[in-house]
Amino acid sequence: MKISIFSAAILSLLGATAAKADMIPGVRGHDHTGVTVPNLEQAVDFFSNVIGCKKAMSFGPIGDDKGKFMEDALGVDPKTVIKQITLMRCGFGSNIELFEYAAPDQKEIKQKNSDIGAFHIAFYVDDVAAAKAYLDSKGVATRLGPIPISEGPAAGQTILYFQAPWGLQFEAISYPNGMAYEKTAETKLWDPKKPAE
Predict the structure, then answer these.
(1) Residue 37 is part of a domain; what is its CATH number?
(2) Coil, helix or strand for 82?
(3) Do the strands 158-163 and 95-102 form a parallel or antiparallel pair, or are they unpaired?
(4) How many angstroms separate the CA atoms of 111 and 163, rounded?
(5) Between residues 36 and 14, which one has the greater pLDDT?
(6) Which domain does 167 fall in, by range?
(7) pTM for this one?
């Protein structure tokens, strides 16, 4: 069956359009992860003196006792106040933004990794066993591990989950020789061992 030049051009354009994903104009990458904590001083201490992050800046309070700025800007109760925000720099990677809120409808969530909307923060380390020994010496709750991954696309990883005193989930991860998926992948994950490309 012959395809006309016009049909071929249309199919080519449709294929090019389908292959190209939409994106926010000008998006460059992940700038920070924001985390609400029950006590900012405790959280800054944990990120600084256990993880090894450095405090970059703090500001606040932020609120609007007369209007709806907090609801309109953040989708929270209008009487919510952000007591303080602190941004932390954590090695060669994205930043962590810590919030301490006061809100009339505030809930304390004790999340598990399996809960919808749950999350964890992973830090690349050179040696997961050394990280576990260090975390144990600091009295930090750790899970089973180090767990080496030897099969599938993530083969080459070693992982360990741990938890902050207030319940935030973390992961220590290492893949010094890369991961199996990299051998055939067109798109590779950002690698904290390498400078930005």
Answers:
(1) 3.30.720
(2) strand
(3) unpaired
(4) 11
(5) 36
(6) 118-181
(7) 0.83
